[in-house]
Amino acid sequence: MRTLTLVFVLIAASAALDDTADDAPTPLYVRLNDTRVACICQQELASKNVRCACLPAEAKNSSAVGFDCKELPFKIISSLSIDCGNFTLSSEIDLHEMTFRHEHFYPPYHVELIGCRIHFDLLSFGQLIHENVSTHESVELAMFGPIKPRLAAQYTERLEYNTSSFKPSSCKLMSLVLRSCIVVYFPIYLNMKCFNLVNMQLIDTPLNVISVSNMVGAMSLQQFTVSHSNLTEAAENIYDIVLDSLNHYLDDAIANGTVPLRNETDWLVRLKKQYGRFTWQKMLFKASDESTTGGGFTFSFAKRRIRDESAESEKWELIPSQLATLNFSYNRLTKIPNLVSLLGNLRELDLSHNEISSLYDYDMCWPPSYELARCYWFRGPKDSLRKLDLSYNRIPFIGVVSPWFEVNLQYLDLSHNRIKSLNAMAFNNSLLPSSLVELNLDYNWLQSFELASLARLEKLWVRNNDL
Ligand SMILES: *[C@@H]1O[C@H](CO)[C@@H](O)[C@H](O)[C@H]1NC(C)=O
Ligand SMILES: *[C@@H]1O[C@H](CO)[C@@H](O)[C@H](O)[C@H]1NC(C)=O
Ligand SMILES: *[C@@H]1O[C@H](CO)[C@@H](O)[C@H](O)[C@H]1NC(C)=O
Ligand SMILES: *[C@@H]1O[C@H](CO)[C@@H](O)[C@H](O)[C@H]1NC(C)=O
Ligand SMILES: *[C@@H]1O[C@H](CO)[C@@H](O)[C@H](O)[C@H]1NC(C)=O
Ligand SMILES: *[C@@H]1O[C@H](CO)[C@@H](O)[C@H](O)[C@H]1NC(C)=O
Ligand SMILES: *[C@@H]1O[C@H](CO)[C@@H](O)[C@H](O)[C@H]1NC(C)=O
Ligand SMILES: *[C@@H]1O[C@H](CO)[C@@H](O)[C@H](O)[C@H]1NC(C)=O
Ligand SMILES: *[C@@H]1O[C@H](CO)[C@@H](O)[C@H](O)[C@H]1NC(C)=O
Ligand SMILES: *[C@@H]1O[C@H](CO)[C@@H](O)[C@H](O)[C@H]1NC(C)=O
């Protein structure tokens, strides 16, 4: 396999100077190693940014309104989109080129690649090591809120880097869309290097597993999509890793006498001494709910960046998970991924078009007695989650145990499932009666339902059931 490097060289810029009589757009040429590719660029009126779409050099588009390329070296290209279906040669695009500044030229803010083969060696953990960046995942305990103190365990990734070799500020990338591309590894390097990257969409990829480290990297995004990818697993072992880390942390902290703020952690320390090891996250949550001092204990993702500029100015930043929209639609997930419970700021979750066959799972639900039974799928985002799309799955029933314990959902889509029964308490035993505004139950197998408790409901769909 040849590795072709996409280099931002404006080889047409000087030629364009002689070409002043021509009204046709002057294309920006980028070089795919030795092959010229023409990019038709247009200036956006409002932002003055330049948007380009690239075609092989021979594919001229004379009807496009062009932008004078000789000004390009002094501008930042807003958006670059390449449809590799147009290239005859088997080329690999080097996204690493888009993470730093070239002479006279910044890489684009938005990149969309369609049907491309991506050169992945430079987007893996190996590249971070090469650039002297070290990453380390661990658990830290933190207190939140001076008024109502709450304890949180944060699964933290520490990113330590040396600004003389690693320059996050030179990566301008804000959004990356890879559609029908050959994605061999998750592009974790981009999540670490490009601090402005907030939107990553991987659509129609051969990736069918997302690892814990990938997910920890992705938490600094605001919007993360892996769809149409036959995803069967998303950080399935997250709680094994997180609990292991918490056990180690507490063993150390108890031995060292460094457990923070005693009153709020008393229950946790007591429980740790009693059990020796935490093996179930639901056990922790249950104990927290029942303790008088530890109310609201939760786990979440966070990131710590340490910029090692010089010995005297070491900079620490603790950044909670930024993920607001998580989209795992059109995959093959069979249950709600546990990792959702660690995403503290999640507002919208799209799990439609999967193979989810139950809202209940022994790992996440705690049913010793029915009045108190609950599932902790949404423990982290319980205060932020508003929209949950579970349409086009295989959910057979909703029982008395609340799958959305303590969640203030406004929009819930359960259409195109196999729901035969809806327990009369299914919604009562939750906050949904005072939060749910829209509920879609179209295309299920319901014979009756009882939704009187949903006092705020404005829209209800129940077409195509067995009513
Ligand atoms: C493409 O460029 C890369 C790096 O600049 C180089 O290593 C590679 O050999 C080039 N490939 C061809 C076919 O010229
Ligand atoms: C040619 O340019 C026009 C105007 O920008 C655009 O709408 C059209 O899609 C382009 N055609 C091709 C083949 O790129
Ligand atoms: C080539 O690019 C044009 C414009 O982006 C697109 O409409 C067309 O479908 C592409 N051709 C192939 C074979 O992908
Ligand atoms: C940072 O990198 C530079 C150049 O690679 C090196 O000289 C310096 O010692 C590094 N600083 C630290 C703290 O590792
Ligand atoms: C990594 O650090 C070592 C030692 O400080 C240095 O020699 C090397 O050049 C650095 N690598 C990069 C890519 O800066
Ligand atoms: C997903 O699986 C189906 C059926 O096995 C296959 O046809 C399709 O190409 C797969 N999609 C991807 C993106 O690999
Ligand atoms: C406990 O003390 C050891 C040795 O001083 C130290 O490495 C570790 O970070 C401490 N752990 C905690 C949680 O305070
Ligand atoms: C901790 O609890 C003790 C006794 O229950 C109380 O006197 C003390 O003020 C509490 N400390 C804090 C920081 O809340
Ligand atoms: C999720 O992705 C699919 C396919 O890419 C898209 O159709 C859908 O609108 C997305 N959902 C959200 C909530 O953005
Ligand atoms: C659920 O709540 C509604 C309204 O508060 C009430 O009318 C209904 O009897 C409750 N259902 C059950 C099974 O308790």
What does this structure look like?
Pfam families: LRR_1, LRR_4. This is Protein toll. InterPro entries: Leu-rich_rpt, Leu-rich_rpt_4, Leu-rich_rpt_typical-subtyp, LRR_dom_sf. Keywords: Leucine-rich repeat, Repeat, Signal. Residues 1-16 form the signal peptide. With 467 residues, the chain is of the alpha/beta class. It has 3 domains: 1-119, no CATH class; 134-161 and 237-320, no CATH class; 355-467, Ribonuclease Inhibitor (Leucine-rich repeat, LRR (right-handed beta-alpha superhelix)), CATH 3.80.10. The protein contains 7 helices and 27 strands. The strands form 6 sheets. Strands 1-2-3-4-5-7-11-12-14-18-19-22-24-26-27 form a 15-stranded mixed beta sheet, with no helix packed on it. A hairpin with a 7-residue loop joins strand 20 and strand 21 (374-375). The longest helix has 19 residues, at 238-256. Residues 1-25 and 59-70 have low confidence and may be disordered.
